[in-house]
Amino acid sequence: MEVFVVVCGVILVAATLCTIYRLAQGPTLLDRVVASDVLLAIVGAAVAVDMVYRRSYENMTLLLIVSLVGFLGSVTVARFANNQKPAEETPASEVPTTAGDPGVDR
């Protein structure tokens, strides 16, 4: 069991370091949001490994809260992060017309 915990700990530390790098260097806001969501998932995984090692479910509430915060944070940012530019009005002189087209019914 101790080998399992050590291997999981090493993997979680490596994942945490990679995630912190992405959180600091992410070129866009969405990269940073995804990195923070992954960081919360890593915290949840660490809590789960701790629960397995101790053979107790005392931290189940903490695990659920961390998961819920990560989910709601990602959904909220995804809802308000809109990369589309506002629609621009096309001047009336540039609007295509169908006058003179032989295939248009009048």
From TrEMBL:
Start and end residues of each stretch annotated as Disordered: 85-106
Subcellular location: Cell membrane
Transmembrane segments: 34-53, 60-81
This protein's record includes keyword Transmembrane helix: yes
Keyword tags: Cell membrane, Membrane, Transmembrane, Transmembrane helix, Transport
Family annotation (Pfam families): MrpF_PhaF (PF04066)
Topology versus the membrane: Multi-pass membrane protein
Any one cellular-component term (Gene Ontology): plasma membrane
Annotated family: Belongs to the CPA3 antiporters (TC 2.A.63) subunit F family.
Protein name as it appears in the record: Cation:proton antiporter
Native organism: Rothia kristinae
